[in-house]
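Honest question from a wet-lab person: if I give you the sequences of every part of a complex, can you actually get the arrangement of the whole thing, not just the pieces? Trying it with mine:
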Amino acid sequence: MDLTPNDEQTVFQTATADWCRDNMPLEAARARPAGLWQQLEAMGWTGMTAPGMDLDHATEALVFAELGRFLAPVALLSSAVAARWTGATVKVALALPADGGARLFDGEGATHALGLFGGALGHFEIGEAPPSAPSLDQSATLTRIAGPLTIVAIDHPHAALHLQILAAAYAIGAADAARDMAAAYAQVREQFERPIGWFQAIKHLCADMAVRCAVARSQLYYAACALDAGDAGAAFHVAAAKRLADQAALDNGRANIQIHGGIGMTDEAYPHFCLKRAHLLQHVAPAERTALLAA
Amino acid sequence: MDIGFSLEETRFREACRDWLHAHVPAEKRPLNAADAIDFDKAWQRRLFDAGWAGINWPTDYGGRGLSIVQQVVWLEEYAKAHAPWIGANFVGINHGGPTLILNASEAQKAYHLPRILKGEAIWCQGFSEPGAGSDLAGIKTRGRIEGDELIVNGSKIWTSFAHVADWQELVLRTEDGSRRHAGLSWVICDMHAPGITVRPIRKMSGQTEFAEVFYDDVRIPLANVVGGLGNGWKVAMSTLSFERGTGFIADQVKQSQEIEELIAAARANGMMKDDRVADQLAQMRAEVAAVRAMTYRNISHVVRTGQPGAEASVIRLFTSELGQRLERMAVLLKGADILDFRYGDDDAVADYLRGFAATIAGGSAQIQRDIIGERLLGLPKSR
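Yes, you can. This is the full assembly:
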């Protein structure tokens, strides 16, 4: 039993964070350069989950939490899951069911989409999709397509859990980003002639953000290991990780805006990026109550 | 990362389970203080005789010298077997003993540690004072040096098991005119010494297990100072790191039993049909799982680096607040039956009322949030 990253995992984690900081800063999330996807492919993040790579879920979770911290494109989630279960080697859009059709995120350049439909994971050909438009999460573009969809189901029970755990990792990354942004601002913003982080009213909001991150991240690690080990409780543990990660991302997203005050409400500042990402992730493989209460 | 246990650890787990299955007492821990102390001592002695006391304590002092992972395995099986609460042995086993292992002289360790493990010596804590609660550095209890003794005057409060304790981890001011964190010492105080008066305090749950302690010219040999005169703050912080860090693993493990019992109870009485109840139970089941994951993560950190991770304070805060939510749910599920509670009852209502201590004792939830904000996030110190 060891729930701390080993040396190899730490190398993966650090390398991911370093690359993201230099090439995909959170601050640029509202307008990602056209060539970003090719760069992500070149770095191997779309294919790292492919069957031949033998990378465990624990390492994936660590890497995706770092990607999520910089609000990496959400199509990385669907593309990584497709790579593992359909052998796809190209960009696959992220689909959320909507009135018999679907909302597609990050559909540019993708011919297929993947998502959870009726509790099962499936993928389908996009065909003639209308041009993409902005979505609530400004880092992701949105296309609505009408049904009926011809969905090819992916039967393996771990496939849906794979999407759920990667989405949980992304949410933890967003929660971490909000926590760090809030703490950094509380250290430098001064009112009443001192940094606002001196005041317990602010300090304790920040502490709660750190608690939510630590709780969700610990469960993420456990769930990833449970999935790797084929543990009988894996479905519960992954659902628990997703539930806690979504809450951390949403609550931290809100707290970060409050701590920033007026500037936090503006389009120009960055806190709203984390909140909006949290709202999107909440709908990706959400943790069902039945899974959390299952025997 | 992995959650698997080694063959040795798995065999150890089976041995724990088998022994507990055969030996956990059928009768409940008695409520009245005099009977409870006999029960606690006898149970601790049985644990020691069977080799289950001090699993990760050094063998030189009566421990087993095994790993902290095996200690956690034992506590997991202990909770699953519904074995008795540690009771009066809490302070000695969970933070007094560990503080001595880290800071005490050979003579102090050789005398006290085996007695703690055998259940022969009950310890209590003497940190808080009427004027020094969250602001622990405001300690006023004084020890004047006279020859090779300290002459102690003052008072301590919220001292659990003071009325039955043999020894106390006492933090007091031993330098004239010293202020705040300087000039304090951590000493082993004999609770049977002349000049000590214990005044029991009744809790709102009815129990009188904690007390105020008065010191009137109490003589304590200087040989009982632990970690050197004037180093009391540092030693006290190591005590608190055990109290806040690994001391509550048993409680954390117990929560995974409690949530399953609450879910079963809500299904049995139909309240699971209430969406709000079902959702809260689902939420808490996820949180209880996360507590175990956090505990494992913290233990892994100890194994890897020799000390708890920076997030240890997070575990303590989160676990204490989650414990209170579990207790509130247990009370909610009982409905108006809680109104039948009387002092002397030992049920979910007593647990709920007692449970308010979880976010006050050992550093209040507010102090823990200060610590997290300052040490984990680098925010400026407010104090």
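Two things worth pointing out. The longest strand of chain A covers residues 92-98. DSSP finds nine helices and nine strands in chain A.
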